## 1
Amino acid sequence: MMRHACSCTCAVLLLFLSFDRAEAHPHVWVTFHSEVLYAADGSLTGVRHAWTFDDMFSAYALQGLSHQKKGQYTREELASLAQLNVESLKEYGYFTFARADGKKLKFLDPVDYWLEYNNATLTLHFTLPLKEAATAKAMQIEVYDPTIFVDFEFAKDRPVSLSGAPQCLLTYDMPHQPTPAEQLRLGQLDSDPLGISSTYGEIFANKILVKCP
Amino acid sequence: MTRLRGVILTVLLAVLVFCAIDVVSAQAAPFGAPHPAGAMSAAGFTGWIFAQQAAFYRSLSGFIRASKEDGAAMWSLFGISFLYGVFHAVGPGHGKAVISSYLVANEETWRRGVVLSFASAGIQSVVAIVVVAIAAVLLGATAKAIGLTVHLVEIVSYGLVILIGLRLFYVKGRSFLLACRELTWTPAPVLALTSGHSSKTLRLPTSRLGPMTMRGGLCMVDGCAGHEHGFHCHDDHHASAWGHAHGPEPTELAGAGGWRRGLSAVIAVGLRPCSGAIIVLIFALAQDLFWTGVGATLIMGLGTAVTVAAIATLAMSARQIASRVAGTRAGFGMLTMRAVEVGAAALIVAFGALLLAGYMASEQLWMFTG
């Protein structure tokens, strides 16, 4: 009897605990285009991103920013915000993860960054240079937020492009539907958070693949 | 009242069905090869819930824009806001676990649990509105400043949760220890009871009797009820959340004064605004529709409250069943209930600590804006 009462309580405690879990619930949507940059010698030098935020987050980011004309923002007026964006993104590795033949590559701080305001949305342009240019038969660049706060999605009209390596083949993969096992893991994020080395968030990754001869 | 109960029960049922399906989907493919047909459709249901939630959120901006020209769109906006609140609260950060643990630890009534859930969701909405009203509307602060404010409020909220948990843990832990001791002292009260009303004979065992007089119903089982001016079962040692030795009677708890206890938990939980609400409010403000945003935020809070109340009700029903079962076994039964309360209090501390450490919160408004 006693054991029954106890297990009953425990079961329900666990039940409502399971509701307080980190499910996929993004608050920021990014539609992006990425240009993979190759040097003349056939080595990968970096990635040039253009991230367009959803209109609600754009409005949030623009809050309090002084500008001359209502509903219009010049690149100069947005310069401080662009600076803030790239500085803040450093902590998250710019949500960009590159591998050359499976080996992880490191990026330097972004260069050539600016914000553009168009159709009530903000687009962040920035170039991520590689720390060291890399050559490989198979390059893989992934763009995703492991915490799922930001939802990244390839731009429909022009998802990816390749610059400077005509001999290479560029393809891309959208994130797959999480498998049941992955769904299960998703439900355990609270009780068992992801470690730093975890690659779990990759199931939400947008993959860019470059194959060179 | 009965209709409200009906609504809550319906929601509860829906939540249970959702959970059951979730459990089935989890068991259908334990880490192994995914079962293509059955398991995927069940897992797809969870996915569907979250896809709906995302769709609701994304459609909010369209409805806010539309309500600028079309008054009718405002009602659609409010409807979507409510649904978004219901679905969204299933995700983390809406104090379900803290509120539920609090209610379990304090043996609150069903009605009060629902009211506290609604109050915490209400405060959460109001805090979001106040932050945006002061920071954005009055001061014209930037997103960075607002993100920082939300972050600070969050830290205070989590700190308060830890404090409430610690306080409760102390009070309940003491009750538990006393209940333990009471078991070994069982012969003493029997002697005291049979020794009559003389204050001299009563004075000595009273301190030992303390623990067994904590719960009115259980006191009666032990036979101390009916002693009008002996020791007061109901009054003297009813340990409240704040550890007052002279806590109120259960019936008094339902009165106005008793609400003060729950208020602290509600404020601690409700203090932390939802990032979604902040973004929606600022978006509405940018469209010169701040008041529409305020309406949507309040209704979103209502939706959140329904989910939180359903989960809190679930937790409290479990406690009631457990305590009814425990009630049939006076000694160990009470001990178990005390242990459950201590466990629930410890959970509150754990939640607070995890939230403060940033493990459970994934809503980082400052991700892009410092």
## 2
Amino acid sequence: MKEFAEWAIETARLRGARYADARVMDVRQRDISTKNGQVGTLVESESCGIGVRVLIGGAWGFASTDRLTREGVQTCAARAVAIARASARVLGRPVVLADEQAYVDTWQNPYIKDPFCVPVERQLAVLLDADREMRGVPGVTLAEGTMAFRRIEQVFVSTQGSVIHQRKMQSGAGITATSFQKDEIQKRSYPNSFGGQHALQGYELVEAMNLPAHARRVGEEAVALHGAAQCPEGSRTIILGGGQLGLQIHESIGHPIELDRVLGMEANYAGMSFLTTEKLRQLRYGSDIVNVVADARLDHGAGLGTFGYDDEGVPAQCTPVITNGLFTGYLSSRETASAIGEKRSGGTMRAESWNRLPMIRMTNVSLLPGSWRLEDLIADTDDGIFMETNHSWSIDDHRYHFQFSTEIGWEVRGGKLGRMLKNCSYSGITTEFWNSCDAICSRDYWTLWGTPNCGKGQPGQVMGTGHGAAPSRFRNVRVGVAFSQ
Amino acid sequence: MTKRSEKSTRMRNGKRPIGRKAAGVRAASRSSVSVAKSGGENSGSFEELRRIADRVLHFSAAHETEVEITAATDALTRFANNAIHQNVAEEIRHVSLRVIVSGRTARATTNKTDDASLRNLVGAAVSLARFQPKNRDAMSMPGPQKQPPVRRFFEPTAEATPEDRAAVVRRVVRLAAGRKQTAAGVYATGWTRAVFANSRGLRAQHAESKAEFSVTMMEQDSSGWAKATSPDARLLDPLALADRASENAAASGNPRELPPGHYTVILEPSAVLDLAGFLFYDFAATAVQDKRSCLTGRMGKPLFGANITLWDDVYHPLQSGTPFDGEGMPRQRVMLVENGVPRNLVYARSTARKKKMRPTGHGLPLPNEFGEAPMNLVFAGGSGSVDEMVRGTERGILVTRLWYIREVDPYEKIMTGMTRDGTFLVENGRVVCGIRNFRFNQSLIAMLSNVEELGTAVRASGEESFDMVVPAMKIRDFHFTDVTKF
């Protein structure tokens, strides 16, 4: 793999590139799903190729190919150079890269069980056991289960002398029960919705979920939701479960702090950000107890945003994003860090695969744990709603006004969980919402959730991100508007 | 932006947007000639792809084997802040293989085409298939089918260069700078060829070129947007699109704030597309069978307004995509909604067999849990224009584009999302001013029951749904539930 990258770099250099890097990636994937007692998807995929990025005359060019021969790689590098020269015809401010030293290193995430060595029939048996349990609940009309595994091997080489070899193993799984009655569809998921939980781990992650053991409860809750009371409309105290809070962090903190959005680079598609540069170290993003980091280091956990080096050769780092409520840091690249006068990139550039350009992506953007026990937090809440597991999510193109709905909720009355609520939703303004946070549960309740489906860029790229969160309380939040008449 | 789900991503894979006849699309001739390249190694020609397919079929000892070989080249020039900031190109081949072993089926894919890799691919698929429970719905692969031809490949578009794209972007950026605006957008070109074959003798192939231009023009407190796609880049008019976006940005400056509530709205075709596109999977027979479609229990009864007629038709001159489905079956034209009444669903082969229906050629690549989906939706339009709708509106909201639309309630089909890049107040038959963006929570069923006027159906492009043929719509009682600060 290294040889291909070196051929590409050398070709780019000979053709006039001031800077060039190349990534060779070999990706293997297994996707399994079941539905109502039958195998649904059963696919193994592999993809291998090289992406070459060059900088000439202050402008970028990128080309990729799966023709991994000397001629194929050199042709690809020459194409990247030609594209960069075309870019220079419509040049803005020439690109300047923040300094970064060269690294020669190898990095691999630890895991216990290689999911590709676990027989597929065993993996199917787990999903089918859970499926049977869910369908054993009268009223469940649809039982679904999924597993997904991804192994990435990549070599990064740059004209600065970096040679970085990384291997990553990613696993994920989840189940969902759906119930249709009269004029209503309700569903419940475990351990999270939209594919479950995903992390940079081996098959041990799936085993720890114990999907069959949770399947009956998931089915029973899906059916019970039909008889639950409708979420009220008005202003309420809400407590969000960790999975839902993870997505709240993703949408209303993770995306607004992407410096490429802030600088207008995503204006045509994903949009921009309300977090303009004069707000850095000035804006009260949240209440004093809100502390958020973007941490790609393994020390933070084996999340989907964990790695050794990003895809422009910058080591994994921890960036304080919100410190005691104050906005303190962006997600940055070498180009964007330089553009706002920062000395060094935050190391957040990642590409979906070999055929995509690296761009700023969330690493593990996490709300640090507080000190509350969940039981105490509920006991401390006179009148509120506990909402859990995301159902829908939407936020404007400046990441300011949001609306979420959850699969399930419970009333909290007099410090106790009460009756079940269905069709729960809440909405708000990003900074008002985070400033209303008055309690965060402790590390005992904290999970590094994986969001495997973050879309960004043109052409589109899907990336996995991590979000550590524990159940937290927010005051005076508008609830129920999604179903208002 | 968190993607909707693996479901929608997987189902939309392989959709190749093409063809549009709307503002920004020149009314030039579409007489370009479909030309296949000569068949050298790595040329991506049909001949090369057929040779790979034949090798795969030769290597497979499975009871039945199906293979699709795809070659594609895509290039995209991206600009922002009045400069090109990203500029990319890729070439890729894809070999997707399905085997059936004793009634069990599985798929494996690769982008490696040497003999050893193709043999490994067969081995991987057979191993996956062998160790799974027998599927009660499994069917033998289809035999040869008659494929109606479609012509969607235009060589000048397929061979557009980075210089071609940069020249277009430079003109657009100059237009923006001349008006003291900031431009951002993309200009993309490319092509795809696919060859489909199975061991029962079915053969099919398809080639398509593509061009896409989208642009956002920004002022201090406002923006405008426009987008078009075509199989033939010569039919796009990027400057006209940029001019339209620029005018909307200028007209929506200093936006007023209106209270949320129920309003008459005029949705431009892109806004209609991105909302109505969320209905596509509801028309899958498997979705109804699984009771997750909003049409469960509602087929054959009036559901939408009598002015709503909708069908699926890959052969429509403004449509795009492959004329065969995931099993190689030719796609059929299917009337889905007639005068407000849901009439038909689409069927993959196995779903059709269970329901004693004929397959409609909408099956997704097997094995899958979703069955089928219509991906070439066409709404019947009217004869009016957006300008005429505005002239006939006493008070309402004109919406250019919607954003981050998600499903809140799957049976009543309540959708939430935001307006974006050009939202206007209409009073007494004219556009009065730009307004701050709204959030909506609106049932699609109710919306399509409240359509007062339909514009001419055009090929529309958005960012939430694949391209469709839809009209602009004037709709009463559209529910905006909140307003944002810009």
